[in-house]
Amino acid sequence: MQFVILCQDKPDSLDLRLRVRPEHLDYLHAQGDALMAAGPFLDGEERPIGSMLIVDVASEAEAKALADGDPYAKAGLFAATQIRRWRWGVKPPKA
Questions:
Q1: YCII-related domain location, by residue (predicted)?
Q2: Which of 63, 69, 70 lies closest to 24 in space, CA to CA?
Q3: Ramachandran region of residue 77, left (φ > 0), alpha (ψ -120 to 50) or beta?
Q4: Which has the closest alpha carbon to 48: 38, 57, 63?
């Protein structure tokens, strides 16, 4: 099952995001095939202000565990996190 994980950073948290970023990237790379895509949301000045991950896991509980295990989440970066069931409808990546 595919899920989108939407994360909104707390205000004025860019320093925390940048400090934890190496651990966050290591964590994402360790997810293997479960991670389909990931990247930051940007403000008008191209600064990251949140994250979006698309994951392919067995259940919403597994998606939540993946989100909760992210070093960004553990560091308290996010003001809000949403997990939504999702299906790739148009222009899926080539296998």
A1: 1-87
A2: 70
A3: alpha
A4: 38
- 33 domain-assigned: yes
Nearest to 57, CA basis, from 29, 89, 85, 90: 85
Burial label, 7 (beta-carbon count in 10 A; 0-12, 13-18, 19+) = buried
Is position 74 within any domain?
Answer: yes
pLDDT digits (tens, 9 = 90+) for 53-91: 999 999 999 999 999 999 999 999 999 999 999 999 999
Which domain range does residue 65 map to? 2-86
- Dump pLDDT digits (tens) for 16-53: 999 999 999 999 999 999 999 999 999 999 999 999 99
- Answering whether pTM is above 0.85, one says yes
* DSSP-derived 3-state class of residue 17: helix
